Hints:
This protein has 2 domains: 2-75 and 195-325, Hypothetical protein af1432 (Orthogonal Bundle), CATH 1.10.3210.10; 83-190. The protein is built from 15 helices and 2 strands. It has helices at residues 2-11, 18-35, 48-59, 70-73, 83-111, 117-144, 152-163, 178-184, 193-200, 202-211, 222-227, 249-264, 276-288, 294-302, 316-325; strands spanning 165-168, 171-174. A two-stranded antiparallel ribbon has the order 1-2. The two termini are 30 Å apart.
Amino acid sequence: xxxxxxxxxxxxxxxxxxxFRVADLCVDLAQSxxxxxxxxxxxxxxTEPEVRELKYAALLHxxxxxxxxxSVLVKEKKLSAGSLExxxxxILLAKERLRSSTLSQxxxxxxxxxxxxxxxxxxxxxxxxxxxxxxxxxxxxxxxNEPSILNQDNRTMLDQISGYRxxxxxxxxxxxxxxxxDLLSIAKGSLSPAERKEIESHVVHTQNFLNHxxxxxxxxxxxxxxxxxxxxxxxxxxxxxxxxxxxPLPSKIMTICxxxxxxxxxxxPYKPAMNNEKAIDILVSEASRGQLDGDLVKIFIEAKVFQVxxxxxxxxxxxxxASFSNHPCDPELHDHSHAE
Length: 340
């Protein structure tokens, strides 16, 4: 277990501590469910082995990331590494070709005896206008390269950039390639459909890996619990599109904890950390849309489960030590309580 968690942390250092935080949140939420009086969950009581089973599943829920390319796993922008620099080079090349073409046309006028100051100024103004347009193109590309929502104005500009061709020196020069255009056209976030599929595949990799571990009988459900942590009650989750009655309760718990930590984590290179209130609003919103278990979200909020990770340091070595030597269900330890 320790070696496996260490492998996850080393594979994706940008999410260091995520597995440990999710595990602590899961344990606290499971214990809060056992103590709750919500009618539907009144008879739900997690035993110590069941809580430990959930914790193991949470610690290893992202192990499948070892099967995802690093360039996709930590992708911050829409364009892949080096693409923006290539585009900038093409724009610089286009500017030089425009300047060369302008000088050539002006020289031709002079040689043909058609020298006119106004004509020369017209060529200069046209050059300045086209160079300014290329600068505008690059600024727009930098803006749409951010993992934000693509608005209509940016989409229109992107179409204009895609259609731009500079025909000089016997060849056409495009500013962006078809592949770059497709990436910049991503409506939300930084991942293309193919990259998103690859990210989503980590769940299948996780379950396949966990199925190879000879779990004892009391922990036999670890692969199933971890394999369903991205499923949603309405069937819109992945990888299997499971519905509410098909998703194990421990997986429903893990889904809430995983989403909360992903939203509030400060170590993600592709997004800023979200404050607690906004993250809870999103959990409530997803519950209202029938994607998350509303009762579990209610318990998460009312029991202030999120406080269990508040202010705690989660470095890989320290968290691993704490996770395995100080399990909250170990008999010799005091009862698990909320941080505040």
